[in-house]
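Tokens as discussed.
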């Protein structure tokens, strides 16, 4: 069932930060970067990038319940990078991932961004493609051969004219705090 309210916002307590880190670790790092796999990478909950004021680690709350997370990194040249995107399994497959991305896009636009960038896992390239991303390298994109760099122009992109956004069915939405 679609939630009545969705909120993408900064964690507000130690418990919420713990949830954010646990989702990233369990559903991104443990899955795509296990220690015995070809691309091992241990999750670091104290990574300095999370404390960069230009980077926004965000939680998605569905009817007040933590459903997922992503980070939006705002770059001075008008790009916004979407990173560390994951929903907990029970919240997948019902359009919430799309809604979370739309909320991040709204936030990026409100912050003046004109392009979104992502390093997609090959398994979810189709998800980003459904939201208007196209494969293409971008400055600072992942050097990992497993990642698929993708971009999406907002308002016509960094230099172009405005383009309308594809429609998305959204429940009651609130922007990040
Ligand atoms: C990727 C993820 C956030 C997608 O969220 P979701 O709620 O399952 O996706 P949605 O239901 O909103 O799907 C939106 C659209 O993308 C499509 N889609 C979703 N996952 C897809 C996938 N893996 N491959 C291709 N298409 C996909 C859906 O079919 C839907 O298409 P539609 O617009 O035609 O209906 C979620 O599956 C997840 O957390 N995965 C594990 C973590 C992960 O892999 N993160 C990616 C790091 S780059």
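Sequence:
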């Amino acid at each position: 069932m679609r939630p009545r309210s969705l909120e993408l916002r900064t964690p507000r307590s130690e418990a919420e930060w713990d949830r954010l880190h646990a989702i990233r670790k369990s559903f991104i790092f443990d899955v795509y970067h296990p220690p015995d796999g070809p691309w091992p990478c241990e999750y670091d909950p104290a990574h300095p990038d999370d404390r960069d004021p230009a980077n926004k680690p965000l939680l998605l709350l569905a009817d007040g319940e933590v459903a997922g997370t992503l980070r939006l990194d705002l770059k001075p040249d008008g790009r916004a990078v979407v990173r560390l995107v994951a929903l907990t399994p029970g919240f997948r497959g019902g359009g919430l991932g799309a809604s979370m991305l739309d909320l991040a896009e709204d936030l990026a636009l409100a912050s003046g961004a004109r392009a979104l960038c992502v390093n997609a896992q090959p398994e979810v390239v189709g998800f980003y493609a459904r939201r208007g991303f196209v494969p293409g390298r971008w400055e600072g994109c992942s050097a990992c051969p497993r990642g698929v760099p993708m971009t999406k122009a907002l308002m016509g992109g960094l230099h172009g004219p405005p383009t309308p956004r594809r429609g998305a069915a959204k429940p009651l939405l609130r922007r990040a705090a």
